[in-house]
Structures are given as C-alpha cells and as structure tokens.
Amino acid sequence: MEKSNWLLIGGAIIVVIVIIALSLSGTGSTVRNSLPGDRQGPGPTPGQPQGAGPGENYPALLPQPGTTALTATETADILFMREEEQLAHDLYSRFASIYAIPVFSNIAASETAHVAEMQLLIERYGLRDHRVGNASSGYTDPVFRSLYPALAAQGDASLTGALEASLAVEERDIADLDHALANTTRADIIQVYSNLRRGSENHKSAFLRQLGR
Fold it and tell me: What is the pTM of this model?
C-alpha cells in the first residue's frame, strides 16, 4: 500500500477518535444551570415532606426557604393570611354577582392569585394538615367566621356598602400583613407578604376611587 494511503487512513482514524472523545465528554458531564427550584443540599428542610428538597417545585424567583422549622407565630400568620385572602376573594366574588361594575370581579381575580401565593407557602412548609376554610364550607378562624357575614350583609344592602366593606377588608389586610412581616426574617415569606401588601394598596386605591375619595 502506498504511503499516501496509509496517511489518509491514519488521519481518518484520528478524526474518529477525536469525535468519540468529544461525544463522551459531552454526555457524561452536561452542566445544567442551578436554579432555586433545583434539589440541592442535604435533603428536606424541617417542616417539609420527605422527597421535597428546599424550594422544589416552586417559582425560581422565590428565595430558598430557611433551614430551620417555622416558629409557631410564623405558622399561625401563614394560615391566618391564607384565610384572610380567601375571605377577600369570597366577598368580592359575591359583590361581583350583585353589582355590574368591573372593580369587584377584577379584584376578585387578583385575590385568586393572592390565595395561590399563600397556598404556595403552606405547601412549601408542609402545613397541609391545617384546614383553611371559605365562605361555602365555613372559615376556620373565628375572626373570619364573624367578619364575613357582617361585611356580606353590609355589601348586600347597597353598592356603597359593598365598596365600604371592600375598603375595610383591604385596610385590615394591610395592617395584618404589616404585623406578619414584623414576625419573620425569612426571605421567601417576606417576598410573598410584600407582594400581597402591594396588591392590597392597589386594591385600596381602586375602592377609594370608586367611592370618589
């Protein structure tokens, strides 16, 4: 065989070896960007169910949960705020079925998102065993059991009454969120509460505008 043919064969073998080597290095060490939702660390944090790593299945922009268990106050605040957001949603949905102005249905839709954000914290910290009520099944917290019928009756009486009742809900919600924010240093909980508070400020302004204030 001529020397030139040997050179061609040898070159082809080298090319094949390089291609195989590059292929193997790519499949065995694919690097995936680490997101807050990825499972990392030693395992689930206190209060989380087994099989759920820190932040698993939660939005990438939400900070990682703390590495210690929730305090009793933090737990109580999460459950309280979850039900308060539910009460707001239930009231505005009720008023939307009575009065043909978009403010109630629009803000009820926003409250649906707020309920979901609070439910996210409940799931993240393994608080699923704690019942959260609503207008149909009855609220768990006695504050809301008495507050809902009183505000519903006020809103059923007139459009102005419904707007005043809704304004009262948002003012109370802001005060309760401020209280809950003061009770925690956890970045993820603070982010959710702060987002809800901004929403409540916007809702308050909307109801004030409807009232001509």
Answer: 0.70
3-state secondary structure of 134: strand
Residue type, 124: R
Amino acid at 176: D
pLDDT of residue 44: 34
What end-to-end distance do the CA atoms of the chain give, in Å?
99
Give me 109's structure tokens: 């839709």
- Integer-rounded Cα Rg, in Å, for the chain is 27
Write down all domains in the chain, each with its CATH number in brackets: 72-210 (1.20.1260.10)
Locate 85 and state its tokens. Answer: 């957001």
Its sign, for the CA torsion 179, 203, 104, 162, is positive
- Sign, CA dihedral 151-156-158-159, equals positive
Contact call for residues 137 and 167 (beta carbons, < 8 A): no
Residue 64 carries which side chain, given as an amino acid letter?
Answer: Q
Check residue 61 and give its pLDDT.
75
Place of tokens 């590059």: 22
Residues of the chain with pLDDT under 70: 1-60
- Joined together, the tokens standing for residue 94 give 């009720």
CB within 8 Å of 190: residues ≥ 6 apart? 181, 184
Cβ atoms of residues 141 and 38 within 8 Å: no
pLDDT of 130 reads 85
Q: What is the pLDDT of residue 132?
A: 87
Distance CA 169, CA 134 (A): 15
